[in-house]
From TrEMBL:
Binds 2 [4Fe-4S] clusters per subunit. One cluster is coordinated with 3 cysteines and an exchangeable S-adenosyl-L-methionine. Keywords: 4Fe-4S, Cytoplasm, Iron, Iron-sulfur, Metal-binding, S-adenosyl-L-methionine, Transferase. CDD domains: Radical_SAM (cd01335). It comes from Paracoccus broussonetiae. One of its GO terms (molecular function) is lipoate synthase activity. Residues 1-22 are annotated as: Disordered. The gene is lipA. Residues 62-279 form the Radical SAM core domain. This is Lipoyl synthase.
Amino acid sequence: MPDQRHPEKAHRPDQAQPKKPSWIRVKAPTSEGYKQTRDIMRENRLSTVCEEAGCPNVGECWSQGHATMMIMGEICTRGCTFCNVATGKPNALDVFEPGRVAHAVQKLGLKHVVITSVDRDDLLDGGAEHFAQTIRAIRHRSPSSTIEVLTPDFLKSDSSALEMVVEARPDVFNHNLETVPALYPTVRPGARYFHSLRLLQKVKELDPGMFTKSGIMVGLGEDRSSVLQVMDDMRAADIDFMTIGQYLQPTPKHHRVDRFVTPEEFAGYEKAAFGKGFLMVSATPLTRSSYHAGDDFARLREARMKKLGRA
């Protein structure tokens, strides 16, 4: 219930949830692969953003043994108006969690794994060392797996937090801008657009060879020109990979859906982003940060090799 899971939203007026168009609807998950992935997550007492955020692609991804693991608990210290992850005071970190994540990666046989987390503003390093330990544990148990991290912004930590994660050498460093800067006060309160952008730029300064990635949602009230400006900002920060997906409203207490962006508009955004120099772009109504992440990572590496070959 919103008053329990999202206490900061409990007194917000209800926002009408418009009927989803045909291109948004997905089938309920029922496959054996889905059940096997779910069982492995339960056995290892792991959380996934797939479930916590109510991702529409969970059936497809889990049926293929792909899951985005969410470390550092299920309770976030932020209260973003678009997000379905519970808000409140988190529990202490579980020191055994990195090992359990690594075990699940090995058991699922993942070629590419995505690790994300809640925001942990209660920790001095924002959870950076826990990310680093998880990366190292996966490298030990499943050395052939490539690793993508989707991190918080480490807004209340010093620069050493980001350095800890980069030094652990994930293959992809992802941090989502989520929306255009004008909507931050209502969509992403507590975060800062240019801080997040600078975080991604610093990753490249610390390790120029590391792939960087970021994404936004559309349908929150932005216009095309503001989305194109975000693309320019990302390219100025040397971000390699951009994702764009449709915002879906989790409950009536969350930010309203301004409109459903058509597949044709998404195709236009993809074309514009590639034209601005991104190595990889995923822009569809159902695109999420880790949707098809493994296949996209392979294409991302291939695109860089082609670019270096031409150089």
